[in-house]
UniProtKB/TrEMBL annotation:
It comes from Pseudonocardia charpentierae. This is Hydrogenase expression protein HypE. Its cofactor is [4Fe-4S] cluster. Gene3D superfamilies: Cytochrome-c3 hydrogenase, C-terminal domain (4.10.480.10), NADH:ubiquinone oxidoreductase-like, 20kDa subunit (3.40.50.700). Its main location: other. Signal peptide: none annotated. It holds the Pfam family NiFe_hyd_SSU_C.
């Protein structure tokens, strides 16, 4: 399913000249997504903020790690203004999973600033309740914010969930946009910046809204599996499987979930096109998926079904590998007519000419 909506009249996007990005990482989180995004290069977050990307609106970024302020009320000022309806348009970025504050007992699970009147901590949920309905767009960054992630695994005491679970999967921003989910643990830096840039071009009226799948992920990023972009996929076809983590061969029998996980990291790399879990010997543990981590544990065990699929591939793969080996040996030899003798033996025969 493709989710395509537009914050416009007559189906045509209405451009804005200025956008504020209110980035709250006070969800249940390690701030790894913020740290990851600092490594982006397509485009770099610095280029977006400083106006070096042509066609984008002026961007004002409020992120605690990247903020030039001293923190405190100076940092909170734009968030408070937006909550009062005095700052627009803005994109709300949520990092970290959303706890269930209805089961917090006498305390709270996570907070962001204090109530100006009482001095009591303001929960993340309080901010989401006030900011999301006023936001031009809402983005969940990282698997914790998109689907709950590590904090939402079985047995957790917080009732943690993803942003769409909290706001509702049918949520729409003031621009008519659904939540944009960019999962990853942490998020692949260019995946997020590319998605954010597309969203900003849409805000400028220069692009349609980004196409999303039924899980609200960017289709062009998460439309293929790890296996389809993996450097090791050819070994799977030939039933040539790694037995340990030092091998360059397919790792499906030592715990890799790549054939069933939607992620582009092996093809895109991690920083500057380099890296990506299977590319550097790491198995895929499904960190971009809604079922992570519970449905992928224990991480180092062979995935269910891998023994059946690898067994089925074995006779075919062994035959193909043998045939390709023979052909490889043949094409690794030069033709016999390449020599320095007096006779021409290439088969050249001009007798057909008149």
């Amino acid at each position: 399913m493709t989710v395509e909506t537009t914050g416009s009249t007559n189906g045509r996007p209405q451009g804005v000249d200025e956008v504020h990005i209110l980035w709250i990482s006070e969800g249940l989180s390690c701030d790894g997504d913020t740290v990851s995004v600092t490594a982006a290069s397509q485009p770099a977050i610095e280029d977006v903020v400083t106006g070096l990307v042509p066609g984008l609106p002026t961007v004002h970024l409020y992120n605690k790690v990247l903020s030039p302020t001293l923190g405190g009320e100076e940092y909170l000022a734009p968030f408070r203004a937006a909550a009062r309806g005095e700052l627009a348009p803005f994109v709300l970025v949520i990092e970290g999973s959303i706890p269930n504050e209805n089961i917090n007992g006498d305390g709270y699970w996570t907070s962001f600033g204090n109530d100006e009147r009482t001095g009591e901590p303001l929960t993340l949920n309080w901010w989401i309740d006030r900011l999301a309905p006023r936001a031009w767009g809402v983005v969940a960054i990282g698997t914790c914010a998109t689907y709950g992630g590590i904090h939402a695994m079985a047995g957790n005491p917080t009732g943690a969930m993803g942003l769409a679970d909290y706001l509702g999967w049918d949520f729409r921003s003031t621009a008519g946009l659904p939540i944009v989910n960019v999962p990853g643990c942490p998020v692949q830096p260019d995946n997020f910046m590319e998605t954010l840039t597309w969203l900003l071009y849409h805000a400028a009226g220069a692009a349609p809204p980004p196409p999303l799948d039924e899980l609200l992920r960017p289709q062009w990023i998460f439309g293929r599996t790890v296996h389809e972009g993996c450097d090791r996929a050819g070994y799977y076809e030939q039933a040539d499987f790694a037995k340990d983590y030092n091998s360059p061969k397919c790792q499906v029998k030592i715990g890799c979930w790549g054939p069933v996980v939607n992620c582009n990291v092996p093809k895109r790399g991690w920083m500057g096109g380099i890296g990506g879990c299977p590319n550097v010997g790491g198995i895929c543990i499904g960190c971009t998926m809604p079922g992570f981590p519970d449905k992928f544990m224990p991480f180092m065990d062979m995935p269910p079904g891998a023994s059946v699929s690898s067994l089925a591939a074995k006779p075919y793969g062994a035959f193909i590998r043998r045939m390709r080996g023979i052909t490889n040996g043949t094409v690794n030899k030069e033709p016999k007519w390449r020599h320095n003798k007096e006779a021409l033996t290439s088969g050249y025969d001009p007798r057909y000419r008149p």
